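Run: sequence + thymidine-5'-diphosphate -> complex structure.
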Amino acid sequence: MAKTKTAFFCQNCGTQYPKWVGQCTACKEWNTIVEEVVQKEEKSSWKATMNGTPKRASPVNISDIDTDKEIRYDILDHEFNRVLGGGLVPGSLVLLGGEPGIGKSTLLLQIALRLPYKTLYVSGEESMKQIKMRAERIQPNSANCFVLTETKTQQIFKQISEINPDIVVIDSIQTLHSDYIESSAGSISQIRESTAELIKFAKETNTPVILVGHITKDGTIAGPKILEHMVDTVLQFEGDRNYMYRILRALKNRFGSTAELGIYEMQGDGLREVSNPSEILISKYDEALSGTAIVATLEGMRPLLIEIQALVSSAVYGTPQRTATGFNAKRLNMLLAVLEKRAGFKLGAKDVFLNITGGITVDDPAIDLGVVAAVLSSNADIPLEKGVCFAAEIGLAGEVRPVRRIDQRILEAEKLGFTRIFVSKNNKIALKNHSILISKVSKIEDVIRELFD
Ligand code: TYD
Ligand code: MG
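>> structure
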C-alpha cells in the first residue's frame, strides 16, 4: 500500500520542490510555494471508511441525462433557498463567507435546527456546550440535528459513515486539518486538501456540504482563491455590525443566478428573515431631501444601491468650485458641460459639490444619470420622488446610454423596495416578472421632464 506523499509546488509556474522555499528558482516569484498531496495512502481516504465501493463514472450521451429527477432540499428558509437558486442541490458544496461575528454560525445552526433531514453540524471553533447554549437561544426543538466538535477530516468522515447524515455543515474550513499534510490548520495547503476531500465526499455520496469560510481584512475569503473555484456556490454574509441587518448574497452559483439576495435581521433569538426589504430603506428615506439620488451600481459582479448627494450653490469666487468625493472629478465636469450645452442649465457660475455616501469610490459609468439627477435636484431645490433610482450612462450628446447587467440592477432595486428605475431606452431587458416601474428614457431632457415637470 502506497503511503501518502506530499511535495511542494510553485503556484505560479508549477515547479516541484522537495521542501519549502521562499522564492521559486524557476520563475523568481516569492511566496508561491505550497504543499500538495501527490499520492494518497488508500486506506485512510474517506472511501475506505464508507461502506461499499463508489460508482465509477462512465460517459453518457448528453441527451440521455435526466434533469427531471434533480431534487433540491428545501431548507425551510425562504431567503437562503432563493439565494441558492431554489434549495440545496444534493452533492453540492456551498461556501458561506463573512466577517467574524456577523452571524454565520448562527445562520447555519438555525437552519440545521429547523431541518427535517438528518443534519451533522461539525464545529471546530466552539465546544458542544457553547453550541447547545446558542441552540437554546434560537429554538430548542431539534430531533434531527447532530453536533460534532472535531477538526481532523479523517475523523469527520469516520463519524459521517456512522450516522449517515443527509446534510453536513462544517464550521469552519479554516479549522480543518487533514493528516496527509503537515502544515497547520488554516494554511493554504490544508484548506485546499480538506476542501478537495470534502468535494470528493459530496460528489460521490450526493450529500450537500455547507462550509463556513473566514474573511480576511481585505474582504476576500481567507485561503487560496482556488477554494472559490472548487466549490459550487459561494455565498457571502455581510452587514454593518452597527446595524441589525444582514445581507446574504451569492457571489458564484453553479445552480442558480447570482442576482438574488436575502435579507435578515439579527435578533435576540436568532436571525429573522426580512421578506419586505423596503422596511429597511423607507424609514431611512422618510424625509425627502433635495440633491440626493439613489443609483443601482455594480461592485465587481454584485449589484449595489448607493446614494449620491450633490450641492449646487452660487459661486463666491470667480472660478466655480467643482469637488467630487468618491467620483471622478473629470467625469463630473463632463456631465456638467453636457447639462449646460444640451439641457440649457446655467451651471457655469455655480459651485458643485458631489459626494458618494458611505465613503466608497465608484467608477461605474452607470451612475451618471443619478449624478445628473442629484445635481438638478439640488439646483432646483426639489427633492426627487420617493422610491426612484437610476441606472444609465450619459453620452456627450446628452443621450442616455445602456449599461451592462441591467437585469441584475433592476432586480436588486426591486428587492430593496424601490418602485421606479430610470434606464436607457436602448437597454435590452430580459426580465419578465417584475413589479418595479421601468422608465425608459433616451435623452437627458426626457428625464428632466419626467422628474421636475
Ligand atoms: P456568530 O454566528 O457567532 O458569528 P460568526 O459565526 O459569523 O462569527 O454571531 C455572533 C453574534 O451574533 C454575536 O455578536 C451575538 C449575536 N447574536 C444575536 O444577536 N442573537 C442571537 O440569537 C445569536 C445566537 C447571536
Ligand atoms: Mg462562527
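>> summary
The domain at 280-452 is CATH 3.30.230.10 (Ribosomal Protein S5; domain 2). The chain has a mean pLDDT of 85.
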